[in-house]
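okkk here we go again. third time trying to get the adenosine-5'-diphosphate bound version out, last two times i messed up the smiles copy paste (missing a bracket lol). double checked this time i swear
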Amino acid sequence: MTLLKLENIKKSFNLGPLQVNVLRGVSFEVKTGEMLAIMGTSGSGKSTLMNIIGFLDQPDSGRYLLENRETARLSDSELSAIRNKKIGFVFQQFNLLGRLTALENVCIPLVYRGIPEKEQKSMSMEILEKVGMADRAGHKPMELSGGQQQRVAIARALVGSPSILLADEPTGALDTRVGQEIMNLFLELNSTRQITTLIITHDPRIAAQCPGTILMQDGYIADREESQ
Amino acid sequence: MIIKANLREAARSLISSRQRSILALLGIVIGIASVIALVSIGTLAQQESMRQFKEMGTDILSIQTANDRGEDKSKGFKLQKILKIPENLSSISIVAPYASSYGELRKDGKRINIPAMGVTESFFQMNRLAMTEGRFISDLDGITPHACLSSNLAARLKAQGIETNPGSELYYNNRKITVIGTIEPVAIGPMRPYEIQEGILLPITALLHMSPQSIISTFMARLSPGFTTALGTEEIKTCFSDLTESMKLRIISPEEMIAQMERQFQMFTLLLGAIGSISLIVGGVGVMNVMLVSVTERKREIGIRRALGARKKDIQWQFLIESVLLSLVGGFVGSFIGVATSWGIARFSGWQFEIVHGALILGVGVSVAIGIFFGYYPARQAAALNPIQALRTD
Ligand SMILES: Nc1ncnc2c1ncn2[C@@H]1O[C@H](COP(=O)(O)OP(=O)(O)O)[C@@H](O)[C@H]1O
Ligand SMILES: [Mg+2]
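finally!!
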């Protein structure tokens, strides 16, 4: 089943007087349960594409269908609701809130859903258990290693049962061994729970483990490979 | 649920930037404290005067002499003329003239300066006084220096180890006086002279004898039943019309007193209100500043929250709640200081103290309003941030 479909997506930024055409017409489809690596040189527009897929940004032109529904011209509340329910973000810098404990960080998406606190906690604990961080639930991010922080961040992305997990260089700030552990977690989540996953990475070894790869170049998709 | 989470969040964020928050709160604390003090003191003062009128009744007049010209020193009222007023005027039932002086009270080498007042026996009933011990001054005392102590003075003397029970002897302006009693504390107001609370009372003839420069500048008069203030005032005016060449009469009625108090209270309100408002504006700008800095410092957090599904509205609420909480803290501290100040002033003025609840509600309400008003702009700024831009900041 087609989960999302992009058609001729264009996006440019104004850098002073200069207009940078970051995406010049990107089209591709992602099916439910797919796991794709997105590769490409720095500045090729990978993050911009991911922001558009994740509804943090809007394209200048082109169509974006999520679960067969047109997504143009949605209000801020509607976009926020989609991010909250359908999208799970994982960032290179983990982006946990330093004042909150691991458990409270995982609760955030549920807070914005208006779920009662008790339920938030039990759902979050369950997911922390899945990523192997239940014993650190009460710790602040500062007290956790990079790999542990990224596990908490993944738990936070997953807690709301999103349709798609978007990870922008999730292993970029981790050493190879810890990065591989995180990659294993993504692989396991994808195979056991059929979570659709897009992973931006520079690391060919990470990309090689994904069933599919998209290569970005100069604002276009230069290549798409499916290994099966 | 979101409100609760926001409140907890706001508290944490404020605690983590403690120093900055405290500085910003100074204005709010001063502002709220002066507003609370203003309303409390005003209310307490009014209650106190009302208590005085309740104790004394509103059927009294206070008649004072006032000099027309500075050089022409008033000779005051003639005692005999005043004492005949109840007989001569049908509207007046009792009179109580008094003369004031100021002097040194001495005993065992200890000296204190106190006010003294010469009174007649009728003064007791006129002011509805009561004795803690001993008796009040009698018209039979004549020029014998028998003294009644006010409650505060008796307490001061006791604290210095000086005997105050009837029969004790003291020196007032180097003359020996004998204590015959102590007056119970009473509510002081515009009608009752403050000497009742702070000084000594002597027979009027004794005082005039002891300090020849003292004059009878005032007498109090109680209306006969069924007569109005206006009627009494009229009769007194005619009674003194032929006799007062260089003297002007000032007749003060309770109605006039209350009106005058209200005018004074309005002045007071304006003054403290101005101080309060300026401090509150300064405090509000401080809150706005703290919130703007907080928004700038937490751009990344805002981006993260937006990515996780926070609507603009949620972000706006988060920062608005934070600024309201911040100014509420200032409001609580300010309320506490304001109540403490009004307590101090009430004590100093010898008023009964109570917490004025209306003032507290006002203080809390005003601080919430300030938090909303001055927090609105920063919260709007936070909500309007582009999520991607916010996420990219570090
Ligand atoms: N918000 C923005 N404003 C201006 N330029 C931007 C913005 N976001 C991205 N860019 C520019 O767009 C280009 C692509 O950026 P990005 O999508 O982050 O690339 P990648 O993730 O592939 O490294 C870069 O040249 C970057 O400077
Ligand atoms: Mg990037």
